[in-house]
Design brief:
The complex is a heterotrimer of chains A (about 350), B (about 375) and C (about 600).
Chain A lengths: L1 H5 L8 E9 L6 E10 L3 E5 L6 H9 L6 E6 L2 E2 L10 E4 L11 H6 L12 H14 L15 H13 L5 E5 L7 H18 L2 E6 L2 H7 L2 E6 L2 E6 L1 H6 L4 H7 L3 E4 L10 E4 L4 E3 L7 E11 L2 E8 L3 E6 L11 E6 L4 E3 L8
Parallel strand pairs in A: 3-8, 3-9, 6-7, 7-8, 13-16
Antiparallel strand pairs in A: 1-2, 1-4, 4-5, 9-10, 11-12, 12-18, 13-17, 14-15, 14-17, 15-16
Chain B lengths: L1 H33 L1 H4 L2 H11 L5 E7 L9 H9 L1 E7 L3 H10 L8 E6 L3 H6 L3 E2 L8 H5 L12 E13 H7 L19 E4 L5 H28 L3 E3 L2 H8 L11 E5 L16 E18 L5 H11 L2 H11 L2 E2 L8 H6 L11 H19 L2
Parallel strand pairs in B: 1-2, 1-3, 6-7, 6-8
Antiparallel strand pairs in B: 3-9, 4-9, 5-8, 5-9, 5-10
Helix pairs in contact in B: 9-14
Chain C lengths: L19 H13 L14 H34 E2 L2 E2 L2 H8 L1 H34 E2 L3 H13 L2 H12 L14 H24 L5 H8 L4 H29 L3 H7 L6 H11 L3 H31 L6 H4 L1 E2 L14 H29 L1 E2 L2 E2 L2 H4 L12 H30 L6 H13 L2 H4 L2 H11 L16 H24 L3 H8 L4 H30 L2 H6 L7 H9 L4 H28 L9
Parallel strand pairs in C: 3-4
Antiparallel strand pairs in C: 1-2, 5-6
Classes of the chains: A alpha/beta (about 350), B alpha/beta (about 375), C mainly alpha (about 600).
GO biological process, one term (chain C): transmembrane transport
Protein name (chain C): Thiamine transport system permease protein
Subcellular location (chain C): Cell inner membrane; Cell membrane
């Protein structure tokens, strides 16, 4: 009914969020304050510090939070009044939320057991469960009790469960942040592969820029309920929209280019390692060594530089230096990007 | 270093566990000393202690049923006269009281029992719960009139009596233009269908009295048939007297529907409306069973002399004059005057039904069993 | 610190309860490492520790042993010992009576039907009164709890005057029928279901349900496949408690059902008090004990499951504002139909619960042909033939209840502390689980058996020259014995749900066992303390069964006073009895409402 009413010409395909406002108290500040974005395919990451409103946005899309203003649309039709279970949007929580009273297979099959004509036969269901468990690398786990699973296995099962009913959109709420580092990186890859293999569009909420970059096709950076910038990871890291975005993306300093010794007054952001300890005598600028540390076999030096503060500089192999000494630094131009060159939303 | 430190703190902590738990244990035992409930009755405790240590003044403990009551100041008068404090223990109805005394006869709960009625008198005597005492009250001769058959030594002394009778709501019968029933047989007639309510013979003393009424009226062979006829005529049996009188009876003030209830002859004066001069109910004096309440000194009592003094006091004019207003029963003493409204509105049955106490004792269980079978169908 | 592979649970911030399965493995491991009195290899417990735990075990054992187990054993023994020799022929005789089988059948029938109805009404009630927020909720919660602690005498009067032919609900024809008894039993026990299930529901993590919704499950299917399974242990636990209360209900059945609907409990009373057939009573007591013990066993198992695996969210986050109409900006079909149904069922139930209470108030205001407060004014005066005024009895009741509460708290908290330990030795674990069930027995054993046992057993205990049977202290002790299980069931879940890693953290921070107990377990248990105090107070105020055996004539408690007033002729006494009942109900409601305020967030109670 509402579909015909609002599906006009030029309606966007997939998810479209328009001027969305979410409020928890009628009079309080908005958790999501007029955000618009669209996801037709691929993975969009919502990136931002905790409390920026990214989870509220996700929950509003899922139908778990009331919409105070704006609209959520799918293929041009508003879904605000569509109940959660009819939206066809899957949801994956940080800690999986597996049903403790069902085994692994029972969890994965849950979304396939709905009532009505659409319910597949038992054999089909079983095949689908096996297929998905294989997809997430847990072939043969169907009869296991969920209590016996490790944290990573749980998230894999939760992913298989969410994908089983072929959702038209998958909403991922910090799906990897409860896992430890190595596992997180491995699972991020697997997640990306699984989404690609099933052709599922997804919105991923995360506070980890590496995870966003690893999984998402596009990244939207949020702060205080507003959208700061949307773009591909490359675009984002090439040209953050402002100091706030730059800081959140992990850039260490945002300064006028002139501070680096040469060039115009345009603002630039320095990624870690934008400064390199010069192996031979002279550098563009000087810094005082604050700390020396090893990171994945490479030597990193924290240096204090006039006008920049403390930044991380890369040191060449074999470099030895001591805390307190002054070192010459050169700029790695690949790690210095312009800030604010593009418009806020893309 | 760190190990020693941990060990030390751990031991200190453990000591605190002990301290806490011991404090808890102490507080339990301290309950006796500083309890809120104890605070209110310390004088009794002192008296009991004095008695236990064999001091001259003492306590006499009266064990009685839950309906026992005397007007304010009477027991204090007794203390003033004799120097004896009275401690009162109340236990259930007459039956429960008797049975508990039987169960505790090796270590009696008190010195004197009051409230064993003629349906349980044989049991109390047969089990040796009470023993004869030297009494001197003037009303003793009157009390002899009600002595239990076979109680030659006077182990039980009658104190009061009452008639358990069917009561009718006169207003109801007047309004319906129906004649009030007068006999037991009337209750089985069709015009009185669904009009009668009685308390259970199993769980209520007046209920048992009414069962005995029918045993006396229809004989060993006929009473069960009578109850069958009553049941067939819509008799209602409820748990207790108050339930029957206040909930089911139309004349009891509780707004019930049934105009015929089993109660006492002495219930009648209480239905004189405020400002009115005539009660709204009447007792059917041809349906009465006489209930006599006895007192006796408990075998093995700590203070048998005190118990005898208290029994004499129960037969004194002071108490005998009080029992109609405080317990709604007739005094055995003929020397005291009844309250005016009693004389007018609570006449006694001329020929109440009686069943010898020994027969009651011999057949009670069998009768109750049969009665239960009949009324529960 | 060992390195953890994938088996590790996600590190959880303290204070955010974890979903059970992720925390399950290490939590269980941590719990297994938590030591009670028994120790494996490792640091030896100090003498002080051993002594402390010994005292903690001994105090409850002595109190419950002396004032519960011994009296019960004394009564039952009396039935099985004839002329100094054991005589078990009673079993054959009693079981040969058709009457015995009838009362057993009646007991099971009444308790089962009442349990099913109470759960059927109570689960929606738990949702509305504990999961949803709406104005006046605390008041409604207090109201539904009042029946649970009202003396049966009062309830009997309130119900019968409603159901009797010609009464306001006489047209139902429920007087003296199974339906009437079931209605009264449900009236008493509705609160048990609402509290037990509601306590869990209020804190149930919402995310599994949301995950299910996102997988395409309708609100109805989520309720059926996610929420109810999560609540199942709580529901089963509530059902077993209700069954227990119903199966041992005495006054209600006697007043409303009479002989036709007699149960094991009323039969024990008749055999003991009226017929003095202690042999039959002893056999029936054993029957009741077996019945109660099996129910407790089942309940204990279910509770253990629940305390281990309760996925709790934070209360604020889980509660939701009750809205019966869709707010713009929220989806349609979000289970509001279910909400409406739950609200309707609950509203009707609350009204039905209120009817007998209102009836009581209305009748207490009836003075002669008119209306007025005369009966209330009379409460301050000593009625003719009564030892004290109703107000004096109220003071006695409050004093006794305070004593009983202190005693019940001391014993109950010690029991809960002991039960919250998980000894490593299998023997120790078994002992804990047995004690867990045993401590509930006072709720399931006939008050007649206990009361009579007091009279039989407490004359010069241990050869002391002290006749406890007539001591005024016996009243609070009798009340405390009934209140102890409620205290244990309130405090124990909190102690058991303490994340076992918290005490371990405290220990590594240098806190000794005593300090851990005080600053971690103790501090957390104290949050349930207010609630335990309230329940103990309310239960003590309303206790009638055992108290009536020991209440001294010169100092009756309020329920005993009500019972005496109602047993006397005269509209005055009747009116005063009703006014006194209202006083008792109000007192109880105030106590319960006060507990609602004290009840700290995160408190799960078992009833």
């Amino acid at each position: 009914m509402s579909e015909t009413a609002s599906a006009g010409p030029g309606a966007a395909r997939g998810l479209e969020v328009r001027d969305l406002v979410v409020r928890y108290a009628a009079t309080g500040p908005a958790a999501v304050d007029g955000v618009s974005l669209a996801v037709a395919d691929g993975v969009l990451a919502l990136l931002g510090p905790s409390g920026c409103g990214k989870s509220s946005l996700l929950r509003a899309v899922a139908g778990l939070e009331p919409v105070a203003g704006g609209d959520v649309r799918w293929d041009g039709a508003s879904v605000v009044e569509v109940p959660v279970h009819r939206r066809g949007f899957g949801l994956l929580f940080q800690d999986g939320q597996l049903f403790p009273h069902r085994d692994v297979g029972g969890n994965v099959a849950y979304g396939l057991e709905g009532p009505g004509d659409a319910r597949p036969s038992r054999a089909t269901r079983r095949a689908r469960v096996a297929e998905l468990l294989e997809l997430v690398g847990l072939a043969g786990f169907a009869d296991r009790s969920v209590a016996t699973l490790s944290g990573g296995e749980r998230q894999r099962v939760a992913l298989a469960r969410a994908l089983a009913p072929r959702p038209r959109l998958l909403l991922l709420d910090e799906p990897l942040s409860a896992l430890d580092q190595g596992l997180r990186e491995r699972l991020a890859e697997d997640l990306r592969a699984a989404l690609a293999a099933t052709g599922t569009a997804a919105v991923l909420v995360t506070h980890d820029q590496d995870e966003a970059a690893a999984v998402a096709d596009r990244v939207a950076v949020m702060s205080a309920g507003r959208l700061l910038q949307v773009g591909t990871p490359t675009e984002l890291w090439r040209s953050p929209a402002g100091p706030e975005v730059a800081a959140f993306l992990g850039f260490e300093a945002v300064v006028p280019r002139a501070v680096l010794g040469a060039g115009d007054a345009a603002t630039v952001a320095l990624a870690p390692g934008a400064l390199v300890v010069a192996s031979s005598g002279a550098g563009t600028t000087d810094g005082r060594v604050v700390r020396v540390r090893a990171r994945r076999g490479r030597t990193e030096v924290l240096v204090s530089v006039q006008g920049l503060g403390v930044v991380t500089a890369a040191a060449p192999v074999g470099w030895t230096g001591s805390v307190g000494s002054s070192v010459p630094l050169v700029v790695d131009p690949d790690r210095v990007v312009p800030v604010g060159a593009r418009s806020a939303t893309g | 270093m760190s190990t020693t430190l941990t060990a030390r703190t751990s031991r200190r902590g453990s000591r605190r566990v002990v301290a806490g738990l011991s404090a808890a244990a102490l507080s339990v035992s301290a309950l006796a000393a500083c309890s809120a409930v104890g605070a209110g009755s310390s004088s009794d405790e002192d008296a009991a202690t004095a008695d236990a240590s064999g001091a001259a003044t003492g306590t006499v403990t009266l064990v009685t049923h839950e309906s026992f009551a005397l007007s304010e100041g009477l027991l204090e008068d007794f203390t003033a006269q004799t120097g004896l404090e009275v401690e009162v223990l109340q236990q259930g109805d007459a039956g429960a009281l008797t049975n508990q005394l039987v169960l505790t006869k090796d270590a009696p709960l008190g010195d004197l029992v009051f409230g064993i009625d003629n349906t349980f008198a044989s049991r109390a005597m047969g089990e040796g719960v009470v023993e004869p005492a030297e009494l001197s009250a003037a009303a003793l001769a009157d009390a002899q009139e009600y002595a239990v058959e076979g109680d030659d030594e006077g182990a039980l002394t009658a104190v009061d009596y009452s008639d358990v009778c069917l009561n009718v709501d006169r207003a109801w019968f007047t309004e319906k233009g129906l004649a009030e029933p007068t006999t037991l047989e009337d209750l089985t007639k069709p015009e009185y269908r669904d009009l009668t309510v009685v308390p259970s013979a199993v769980s209520s003393s007046p209920g048992l009295a009414f069962l005995l009424t029918t045993v006396a009226a229809f004989g060993e062979d006929g009473w069960a048939d009578y109850w069958q006829a009553l049941t067939d005529n819509g008799l209602r049996v409820v748990d207790g007297w108050s339930d029957a009188y206040y909930t089911d009876f139309s004349g009891g003030g509780g707004g019930g529907e049934r105009p015929i209830v089993l109660s006492y002859a002495s219930s009648i004066p209480f239905t004189v409306p405020e400002g009115g001069d005539e009660p709204t109910t009447a007792a059917l004096l041809d349906t009465c069973f006489r209930q006599v309440e006895y007192a006796g000194v408990l075998a093995g009592a700590e203070n048998p002399e005190g118990a005898a003094q208290l029994l004499d006091f129960l037969l004194s004019d002071e108490v005998q004059a009080d029992v109609p207003t405080s317990m709604y029963v007739y005094p055995v003493s003929t020397a005291v005057e009844l309250p005016e409204e009693w004389a007018r509105w609570a006449p006694l049955a001329e020929q109440p039904f009686e069943v010898p106490a020994a027969d009651v004792e011999a057949h009670r269980e069998e009768w109750l069993q049969r009665w239960t079978d009949v009324v529960t169908g | 610190m060992t390195l953890r592979e994938e088996t590790a649970a996600p590190p959880l911030p303290v204070g955010v309860p974890s979903a059970s399965p992720p925390a399950g493995v290490p939590a269980a491991r941590a719990r297994a490492a938590r030591r009670g009195p028994a120790q494996g290899r490792g640091p030896r417990p100090s003498l002080a520790q051993v002594l402390g735990w010994t005292v903690a075990v001994l105090v409850p054992l002595v109190v419950l042993g002396m004032f519960f187990a011994w009296p019960v054993v004394a009564t039952v023994t009396r039935g099985f010992v004839a002329d100094g020799a054991l005589d078990l022929s009673g079993f054959g005789d009693v079981f040969a009576r058709p009457r015995t089988w009838r009362v057993i059948r009646q007991t099971l029938l009444q308790a089962s039907v009442a349990t099913v109805v109470a759960v059927g009404l109570g689960v929606p009630g738990a949702y509305v009164l504990h999961r949803c927020r709406f104005p006046g909720r605390d008041l409604v919660r207090a109201l539904v709890t009042v029946p649970f602690v009202l003396p049966t005498v009062v309830v009997g009067v309130a119900f019968r005057s409603l159901l009797v032919e010609g009464g306001p609900l006489g047209f139902l024809g429920w007087d003296g029928s199974l339906a009437g008894i079931v209605a009264a039993l449900v009236f008493f026990n509705y609160a048990v279901v609402v509290r037990t299930v509601g306590g869990t529901w209020a804190q149930l993590d919402e995310r599994p349900a949301q995950a299910a919704r996102s997988l395409g499950a309708s609100p109805g299917r989520v309720l059926r496949t996610v929420t109810l399974p999560a609540l199942a242990p709580a529901i089963a636990s509530a059902a077993s408690l209700v069954f227990l209360f119903c199966a041992t209900s005495f006054g209600t059945v006697l007043v409303l059902g009479g002989l036709r609907h007699g149960t094991v409990e009323t039969e024990i009373w008749i055999q003991t008090v009226q017929l003095l057939d202690l042999r039959a009573a002893a056999v029936l007591s054993v029957v009741q004990l077996v019945l109660v013990a099996s129910v407790l066993l089942v309940a204990g198992r279910l509770r253990a499951r629940r305390e281990r695996a309760l996925p709790l969210g934070t209360r604020r986050a889980s509660e939701r504002v009750l809205r019966l109409r869709r707010v713009p900006g929220t989806p349609r079909g979000e289970g509001r139909g279910g909400d409406v149904a739950a609200v309707v069922v609950t509203a009707l139930t609350v009204v039905a619960l209120a009817v007998p209470l209102v009836n009581l108030v209305v009748r207490s205001l009836r003075v002669g042909e008119g209306w007025g407060l005369a009966h209330y004014r009379a409460l301050a005066r000593r009625a003719d033939g009564m030892p004290v005024s109703v107000l004096d009895a109220t003071v006695t009741s409050v004093r006794a209840a305070l004593d009983a509460t202190v005693l019940a708290l001391v014993v109950g908290v010690l029991v809960a502390l002991v039960l919250s330990r998980r000894p490593r030795a299998a023997v120790g674990r078994r002992a804990v689980s047995v004690l867990d069930a045993v401590v509930m027995l006072p709720l399931g054993v006939s008050a007649v058996t206990v009361g009579l046992g007091f009279l039989l057993a407490l004359h010069r205990p241990f050869g002391l020259d002290l006749d406890l049977r007539t001591s005024p202290l016996l009243v609070p002790v009798a009340q405390a014995v009934v209140a102890v299980p409620l205290v244990v069931r309130t405090v124990l879940p909190v102690l058991r749900s303490v994340d076992p890693r918290l005490p371990q953290v405290a220990a590594t921070l240098g806190a000794g066992p005593g300090r851990v107990l005080r600053t971690v377990d103790g501090a957390l248990a104290a949050r349930a303390g207010g609630l335990a105090v309230g329940f103990a107070l309310a239960a003590s105020l309303g206790e009638f069964g055992a108290t009536s055996f020991v209440a001294r004539a010169d100092a009756p408690t309020l329920p005993v006073m009500v019972y005496r007033l109602i047993g006397r002729p005269g509209a005055e006494s009747y009116g005063q009895a009703l006014a006194a009942s209202v006083l008792l109900a109000v007192l109880t409601a105030v106590v319960i409402a006060a507990c609602e305020r004290l009840r700290a967030p995160g408190t799960v109670s078992d009833w």
